[in-house]
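Researcher: Let's try something more involved. This one mixes different molecule types, so please make sure each is placed in the same coordinate frame as the others.
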Amino acid sequence: MESASNHPSQAHLSTAKRAKSLASVPAASSAFYDVAVAWFHRLTIEQRVLTGFNLVFVGILIVSAISYHNTSILLTNRELDGRSHDVILLLTTIDAAMSEAEDAHRRYLVTGEESYLELYKKVVRQKPSFTAYLSELTHESPEQQQRVGVLDRMMERQLNSESKAIARFQEDGLRAAKEMAFEGAGKRELSVIRRIIAEMDLHERQAVGRRIAESAAETENTSVLLVIGALMQLVLLAWVYYLIRHDITERRRVTSELQRRGELLEAANKELEAFSYSVSHDLRAPLRHIDGYAALLRKSVEPSLNDKAARYLQTISDSAKQMGQLIDDLLVFSRMGRQEMLHTTVDLDQVIRHILADLRLDLQGREISWTIAVLPEVQGDPAMLRQVFMNLITNAVKFTSTRPIAAIEIGVEHHTSTEIVLFVRDNGVGFDMQYASKLFGVFQRLHRGNEFEGTGIGLANIRRIVHRHGGQTWAEGVPDKGATFYVLLPARRRDS
Amino acid sequence: MIAGKPILLAEDNPRDAELALAAMEADHISEKVVLCHDGAEVLDYLYCRGQFKARPKGNPAAVFLDLKMPKVNGLEVLRTIKADINLRPIPVVMLTSSREERDLADSYALGVNAYVVKPVEFHKFLSAVKEMGTFWGIINEPPPERWRFIQ
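Model: All components are placed in one shared frame. Result:
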């Protein structure tokens, strides 16, 4: 995994260097870039991929938000356009209605025809609704509202002067009305009305034109944004793809590397097996010969053998036997490391009972007070765990042999959901804690050979077995007071 | 009991051979021992060929085989003996330094009649080989000779 994360980070470091070398990059942004690269460097592959996908997600959100904003502007513009068209149409209608009113009042003055008067009155009736509607349509533009106000007043005045002319005509006849017409009553107002209508019309048309331009720009922006967004997301996705692919390739490489090493290890193991086989066969033969010929020699010179010579011959035999024992122990030790492990539930109570039964004969003539707690069930290899407790108990028995009453205690130090710590305690000769680290070494002994027999392989075997179970061993001792050996076993099964 | 039937001892190491013979001196069993120095010699003896062309016909009372021998090793000799219908009845005993599980399993799978690990201590070696010689050379009733001519 370590090498898997190396390559991309190197690639990024080199881009960082390139970015640094660019003179145009300002110092601040270069520093930011370095911080970003350093941050990225610390991420795991999962976090990098997640970062990539988050960036894509954020990109999609941004593009969507901007697109939504632009589209709603287009929709608003379209609504405003519709209102502008209504305004223009209404202005045309008002213009036509005012012309019609002027025309109708003139015709009435000339002909006295009542139908013309009716036509005029209709326009007068319509006038408030015209201005109200216009005011409503243009309520968003103060400029237009002002014009609507002026327009309303002008229309009022125009219609008023026309009404006055009609009233004079009805009271004083055509002559008086003619006089008024000559004075040019209503002429000025009508031209102002026309001008205002033209202004308002122009204003709306300009607004429509402006909005069309704006909408076109927005549409263009939106499409450019969509293209850029899509490209950026493609780039980001390609980068994420690269990260994942790179990681998969690395993982494959590591897997095959592990497999290769496993094969090498297996080959080495086979070689070791062949070696120990040859040790067991070839090293034992010369020892047998030494012992055998010493015995034959003793037999053939027996009558003339003095005590000294007999002792020499005995020493030759004893040494050969001792070496034979060492070889056997070494073989057991090496086998302990290679042997297939079983994984079952082991009832330690039963294991201890069987061990004590097996030791019955050896314990004859010894006074030992046993304190054995109720022991839990553990996970592991029954034969190997039996070996562990056999060694611990025989050690305790052996090193208490100088005590008139030996006290040996087997118990549980603590028991949690993850681990079990067992101990075997004795009141034997103990040991100096400064040598504690040597206790579990192969052929390490803290006592002289003539004090206690043994080759010094027992605790080494214990350590190897316990390690294979995923546990630990340690010991505490006080010289001439006793020793306690601890065995920690994981509560759950672990492969070795 | 068929007196005079030889015991075949296959042992490449002359010292081991001498010690084994010394062990079997007691009941004069050693006098009946024919010593072979490798597996090929054992097969020559059994098939009456090579240096054993002129030997009196008949199978030995037993074959004591070392596992590790030059030319043809103990397991190969055992396989040949147990595969031959005429030789199969001969009791074969492995006499070896190896306590390896694999050797034990292979030997028994091939039909060995007994498996003895040579002890390092001479007095144990002595008693083991002596008992072997006494048992297979004197106590044990070998298969009837007609097996040899059954074909």
